Amino acid sequence: MNLTPKQLRIVQLIRAHRLANGYSPTMQELAQELGVSKVTVFEHVEALIKKGALRRKANKARSLSICDDAPVPDEAQPLRFPLVGKIAAGHPIEKFPQTDQLNLEELFGPRIGQKAGTFALQVDGDSMRDEGIFDGDYVIVERRETARNGERVIALLADGETTLKTFYKERNHIRLQPANPEFEPIRVKECKIQGVVIGVLRRY
Which one of 57, 127, 169, 192 is the catalytic residue? Predict the structure, then answer.
């Protein structure tokens, strides 16, 4: 999918707005953010719909969303580090050829047969600390709308709040389980899954 820089920015803005607020921005809000006219934004959005990157419900405000199978090119940019060895406590370093690399795109990018991309969110709070996800960490999220029991998800609740919890579909409700005894599970009839966590990054 060949998106122009402006179209790519519009997709990024829509995703960020939906994650933060639970609904899409208006054309006017997109225009203000980009510093262009509302007509220009409308033209870009129509092009994105034709390319299969966005979809929109007719006659409904704030209904723009990213298509499930839309490969967004910038969601997982290549990032590589030299892989010079591996280390275990009590054992010497095993040398690797200097040509080997740790490719984060291979670890966190779209998997074989999966078109949707990945994105990152910074964690705010300690509700998942016992699973090794701490305040200030970055979670790498695979964009999906469904999840299996035990997966850590980004869930959008009915009140517009977005939360990171472990997903469990139970008999008559969904349990969003924290990993910290100071927090109670969230039990809801339904929620919208926006993605599944596939990795955690931390900078010291």
Answer: 127
